[in-house]
Predict the structure.
Amino acid sequence: MAVEEEGLRVFQSVKIKIGEAKNIPPYPGPNRMRDCYCTVNLDQEEVFRTKIVEKSLCPFYGEDFYCEIPRSFRHLSFYIFDRDVFRRDSSIGKVAVKKEDLQKYHGKDTWFQLQPVSADSEVQVSTERTPSFLINSCFVLECQGLPIVNGQCDPYAAVSLLGLSRKKATSRFFSFLFIPSGPNYTKRQFDVEEEDVDKLALRVDLWNASNLKFGDEFLGGVRVPLRVLGQAGVHDAWYFLQPRENGGKSVKVEDLGSLRLNIVYTEDHVFPSEHYTPLRDLLLDSANVEPVSASAAHTLGEVCREKQEAAIPLVRLFLHYGKIVPFISAIAHAEINRTQDPNTIFRGNSLTSKCIDETMKLAGMHYLQVTLKPIIDEICTEHKSCEIDPVKLKDLSENLRLYVDRIFNVITTSGVRCPTVMCDIFFSLRESAATRFQVDQDVRYTAVSSFIFLRFFAPAILSPNLFHLRPHHPDPATSRTLTLISKTIQTLGSLAKSKSANFKESYMAAFYDYFNEQKYADAVKNFLDLISTSGKWDQKSIETPIMLKEGFMIKRAQGRNRFGMKNFKKRWFRLTNHEFTYHKTKGEGALCSIPIENILAVERLEEESFKMKNMFQVIQPERALYIQANNCVEARDWIDILTKVSQCNRKRLSTYHPSAYLNGHWLCCKLSADSAPGCTPCTGGLPANIQLDVDGDRETERIYSLFSTYMTKLIKMQEACGSKSVYDGPEQEEYSSFVIDDPQETYKTLKQIISAVQTLEQQHTKYKRDKFKKTKIGSQEHPIGDKSFQCYIHQQSESSTYSI
């Protein structure tokens, strides 16, 4: 979800590796050990939580987290908590990185010192807005952007006039929208000498009313000296919420320990689509360029430091426009023709191999879940011993052998579910390899197995959390089991004839002897034949229900009973590849079941509908189900996965209502008929068989950014083209890193790339020049922020009497 900013869209994403914590202070008791977990927060909104590492003062997490950030934020924060079974979990320390400082740590493993956490110092809103000040009366109008704290948000404001002893007034308002003339409005009046005005300050504090015994939670506050109001009596400004002054006890930072993190924050500024037409057209025509090494897409792979950098946006762009198969076929064919030994085919980290890897991750994610997730879940929950130490091999290998057999069977019988785009790519690889190496009868299999087994199934088994098969990294014992399974499956898929050539460990070679039978090789070949035959498969084959996602959320009653109460209730939601259900609690029977084929659209619901954040709607033929997720990232995850499983439904809607139907009309378009067609285009229309929602302009912007970063290499590649054209002889060493088959055609492409990049560079320069528009905050200047808190002060007379 993009944030609109003066004619362009800004996309934010963050990729985090939470490594480990060290030297956590011991628990003040006889055991001294702690059960710690780490949370990731946007400001104070928790968006991710690691597993709990028990009984450790140096917990290792080793977890990766990626999310698109759907709103503006000020801090990316990390909290270490100690689990407490009987009371609220206690916070040990935190790391808070300002948004503007994230680039300092970009892609680097960094140890951060944990800082103390104080209730008074925690500001739980992104920004505060006070747009209009007129001196003598204060009205708190409304709040926006407040967080959900412990599952609820019941804010109130405390307004104080500070600076004179014994003369302090406070007014409290207890509704989500603060109504100035409501029943909770309180008036205080007192006289102030003119010369004392400069000593006064207006203080507005935000609190969350809590029903818990721990008391209300401080959200943040603002202090405004009255002198900033000036003679005109009008003050228009933005304010950031601040911590409470002198809040918290002093804690020695070095006593709290440290946390190792790797943070990659990306911000894409995307212009209207027409600005990208020249570069986008040049890229999408790459498959038609002869030779393909002279194309714009191949050139990007040549100049990038890592092929993965180029592969990610290229694959997403070509998938979006339905041109991924001809592009990969072209670059794969060229690479195969340059390969001399069939045993080394696709062994390197080339642009071709990285593009196929990325395509499988994107197009094949649902395929992985349906195929592997049930057995991976079982392995992770059963915790069976699978060690094959040589001494204990005879006694303990049975569990591992059974697991390998089951996983091998589910893989080799899953060919009919392999996504069409992957089948078409594998068909191209098989044909090119068989044509190039006609003597080798197995190359048509190894060209495909090197991807589907080595780079797809084996890594997913080894690290299921990275492929969304498990929420967290497995424990050490389970991880060991998955490593042994992954090695065996990888070797079976490679059709290895020698049992010992593929293992460094002798005990693995002995274990593999169980599978050294012709039936396993035949099963692999049949599977590879099936998935490398071009054509569209019937995706409606009967499948066992696979649980894809589950968790607690809040839903609004659907109104199936005409006279029933349409209230909000917390329910356990469960999504499989067959149905979407909700239950009173986990493990109980379904209160409602929605077949996947009945989901017509899944879209966000505007906050104004129910004055609630993080809401989305599941639209059915007769009604819509309104749901509130626990945070913005979770809401996006549910929308994405519900859209993916329902995207091929024949009756999917093209338009929807972004707001709810309340009080006899749609809030968005004001139409009175509850069956009125939608007023806004749906966002979830995805190409069949490719379960991915891609923004083509955003990917082109990322490619522009890469070309801009490596501009010096583009120029050097131009020089290499000139050198090759003039000097027809052995390749000069300084240009040997570039693949240039046709210097003239490559030079022509480079010239077009540089021209398109320079045009976009001019647009970015203009945007940066116009971006730094600021507005005054009292006597300071700050960039414009989000609306989150609004306060209005009105002058009634020119006397020295102040009313609050």
Observations:
- The longest helix spans residues 743-771.
- The longest strand covers residues 8-22.
- The two ends are 41 Å apart (CA to CA).
